Amino acid sequence: MTYRVVAISREFGSGGRTIGQKLAERLNIKCYDSELIQKIAEESGFSKDYVKKEDENKPSYWQTPFFTYNYKATSNQDVIWASQEKIIKDLAKDQPCVIVGRCAEYILRDDPKVLKVFIHADEEKRAQRIVNVYGEKTDSPEKRIRDKDKQRRAYHAYYTETDWADAENYDICLDSGRLGIDKCVNILHDLYKF
Amino acid sequence: MTYRVVAISREFGSGGRTIGQKLAERLNIKCYDSELIQKIAEESGFSKDYVKKEDENKPSYWQTPFFTYNYKATSNQDVIWASQEKIIKDLAKDQPCVIVGRCAEYILRDDPKVLKVFIHADEEKRAQRIVNVYGEKTDSPEKRIRDKDKQRRAYHAYYTETDWADAENYDICLDSGRLGIDKCVNILHDLYKF
Fold first, then answer.
1. Cβ–Cβ contact A166 with B under 8 A
2. Could you read off the pLDDT of A28-39 as tens digits, one per residue?
């Protein structure tokens, strides 16, 4: 089995984005991460700043049909999701690439040429990483991680109806804190190539 | 990081046991799977047949303290669990080895020298495997798989208070149906050795 696209879902602070970038570099293919925001903005008509602010956020309760009394209403997040879905499907058709985040592994779940990856690590390792590597300035990096996890998990559950960390949704899940970033890149590189 | 022990948790029909055996053979170390039943029988005092029958089964409700009106009661499964815990810890101390099933990844979770692995595959691939490889004769292999999954998941949740398929409990999770048995063995072999 050879793959065309690698879709990486990742816990905040796990280094999933770095793994995606290093992998893409070694495979000489493109890595889509923050660039997706620009594309989603263009497709949806929202500003780049707005898309960034709402990135991987599910609609809040008062934006749902129950609260708006409009059962045909579409929230801004739903518009962003539809744009994102279209862009990710188009990218995957267009060229071999790595896509980080934005439920790409779910959006492309029926394509056998997509390697679906989940990168995670324990809280302590991720807390160290967001302070030392991302340069986050926070009194409690653990709380920041828990908040971000909660947000991403809720977003994932809302749009995919699956559990974010359920191994069954992925071809391979790796603990980057235990295995190390480079070992994760090597494993994915070998899987992609052979 | 080098490892001493590989603890493999696996979905029924995923080939996790075969992966464990092949890996142990290549590493020239022992693989404990059904042999554990004999050891647990010796340690607990129950017969081998009884241990086999109750294997990876949680106590039923009428065996719990609430139903027995005895809050200090220990179910037979609890005795088996205690024996299993002791045997698995002793094995891991004693020698490098592969241990398949029986929540070994949970029992040994605090040992950094243990590589914690989860092997899974989709229902269709597992149904084919239990009929073609295990020689199971059943009208509905899918139902047999669902029943077995339900039993193992409940057992795992009862004794570990974690979700069986949660990627966060493992160093690596692999879809053997997508990646193939031999590729899974290669990945684990490389991880263990280097």
1. yes
2. 999 999 888 888
